[in-house]
Design a protein that fits this description.
2 strands; extended; alpha+beta; 18% strand; 95 residues
Length: 95
Amino acid sequence: MSRLVAAARQAPPRFGGYFLVVETQKGELGVRYQNTVMGSLLEAISRRRFAAIVERHKGDKYIKDFSSWDHLVTLVFAQLGGLSSLREVEAVWNA
């Protein structure tokens, strides 16, 4: 499978200093994407089904920032990491 690789270069002065994106080569990308272990574990949970359950029970009714999905990910992370308090979760995520 062929992929295009793009690069940016400084534009001539008549373009006001913006960068132009130009095609440099065709071929495979140098760095491949790989899921994390946490991402692989969360793939088992259907986000569409989870969102339907949250919608049915109005779980995000008063939520502004921290959604039910974020809450679930945090709880799974804490459980698998053996964390026992919110302070520990905060300390690990802010480290």
